[in-house]
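Reminder to self: tokens first, then the designed residues, so the page reads top to bottom the way the pipeline ran.
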């Protein structure tokens, strides 16, 4: 391959690196000039794999191999590997020679184990990136939970946080999968304690928790801690009545959550302002999660989002309290594809000059405001949450979550990374961006502190 170099002297470069890679691979395949044998053994198994390798290449690619070879006098290295790692060892060793690898979902974890064990940093980082980019891919038994548990064990915080965020932001689909009942009790409690879970309703979460407890039969303390993390006040009274009379799990553990149920009924029977005078309404029991139910928000599909400003209106319930069940708030939302603060716009001093309606170099923004004011708003802060969907592996997943009071300008990075210009962008589906707006009423405690 002959290509022009960008150097100032106009020189050219002859690139035969693909041929070099092919010859290195041939060295591995045929074992020519090999000076060390890698004997891969699996405990409790008769199968043994032997690779004719080269000390120089192994040492260049892996500091672990370099140490092993320096401290080893024999021409054979015996490597003890688990069955899953032994099954992909040929792929691993080929990467050391060729610098490339192809893999499937089920091979990611054992390859990451090998890269970590032998300290091949580039491969380790590459597989972590592969895993974070393939969380949404379909697999027969699911893989996100097992990847999370592995990342926790391996100390890969990047992968751990990516898996945990995916589970939290796409919880409804996870709850409906067979993977849900396989999660550990530690991961279960970690998820239940989060306020950023995205799901249809709190009842959906309780039903999934009930299925998990029935399937896994945890010890009493674990079950009690999980059940106490449910936000019963976010369920309407008729759902609470049904749970108390029909749920076998709640019947077994009702004493453990009796105080939470009692406070939830109080919450539904009095006005939130009155309730806030006597109880701490800032605790998690009274804090909504990101519910996709139409009671708390609305999807918003914007076709050709870079074209011009768009607006929409929708209604939500005033609050989750039964006292507010029949009260509605109308919200107006405005989407601007290119917006700049006035302080950053070009000033027009000429008399009669008009400001342009479309500002070059601006960024997307959403403003959400109530259509009218009301005395019922007293004691309530309305947090707005915008979910941005994206296409990953042919599936719509939540890619970003933005929380704000009135405008996404408060975040500063709203859709900063999104490509809204090209129809092939993962943020666009048939030229449209898919958003979901959620309004979360957060109550203010009015308890007077005594001196």
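Designed residues (451 positions):
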């Amino acid at each position: 391959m002959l290509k022009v170099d960008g150097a100032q002297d106009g020189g050219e470069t002859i690139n035969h690196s693909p041929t070099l890679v092919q010859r290195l691979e041939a060295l591995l395949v045929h074992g020519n000039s090999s000076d060390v044998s890698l004997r891969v053994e699996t405990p409790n198994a008769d199968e043994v794999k032997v690779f004719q390798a080269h000390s120089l290449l192994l040492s260049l690619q892996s500091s672990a191999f370099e140490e092993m070879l320096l401290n080893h006098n024999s021409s054979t290295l015996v490597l003890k590997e688990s069955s899953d790692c032994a099954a992909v060892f040929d792929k691993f060793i080929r990467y050391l020679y060729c610098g490339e690898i192809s893999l499937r979902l089920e091979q990611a974890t054992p390859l990451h184990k090998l890269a970590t064990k032998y300290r091949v940093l580039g491969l380790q980082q590459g597989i972590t990136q592969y895993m974070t980019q393939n969380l949404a891919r379909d697999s027969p038994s699911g893989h996100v939970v097992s990847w999370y548990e592995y990342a926790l064990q391996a100390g890969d915080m990047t992968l751990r946080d990516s898996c945990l965020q995916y589970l939290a932001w796409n919880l409804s689909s996870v709850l409906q999968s067979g993977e849900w009942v396989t999660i550990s009790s530690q991961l279960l409690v970690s998820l239940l304690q989060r306020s950023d879970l995205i799901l249809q309703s709190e009842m959906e979460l309780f039903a999934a928790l009930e299925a998990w407890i029935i399937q896994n039969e945890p010890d009493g303390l674990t079950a009690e801690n999980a059940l106490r993390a449910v936000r019963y006040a976010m369920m309407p009274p008729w759902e609470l009545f049904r749970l108390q009379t029909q749920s076998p799990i709640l019947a077994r553990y009702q004493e453990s959550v009796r105080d939470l149920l009692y406070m939830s009924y109080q919450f539904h029977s009095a006005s939130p302002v009155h309730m806030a005078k006597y109880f701490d309404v800032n605790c998690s029991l009274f804090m909504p999660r990101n519910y996709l139910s139409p009671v708390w928000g609305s999807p918003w599909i914007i076709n050709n989002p870079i074209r011009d400003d768009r607006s929409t209106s929708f209604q939500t319930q005033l609050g989750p309290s039964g006292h507010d069940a029949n009260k509605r708030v109308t919200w107006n939302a405005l989407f601007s594809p290119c917006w700049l603060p006035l302080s950053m716009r070009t000033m027009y001093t000429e008399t009669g000059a008009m400001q342009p309606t479309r500002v070059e170099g601006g960024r997307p923004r959403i403003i959400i405001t109530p259509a009218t004011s009301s005395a019922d708003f007293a004691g309530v802060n309305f947090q707005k949450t915008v979910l941005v969907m994206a296409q990953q592996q042919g599936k719509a997943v939540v890619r970003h979550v933005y929380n704000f009071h009135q405008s996404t300008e408060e975040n500063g990075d709203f859709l900063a990374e999104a490509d809204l210009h090209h129809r092939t962008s993962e943020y666009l589906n048939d030229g449209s961006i898919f958003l979901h707006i959620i309004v979360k009423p957060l109550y203010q405690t009015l308890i007077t502190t005594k001196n």
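The chain has 16 helices and 15 strands.
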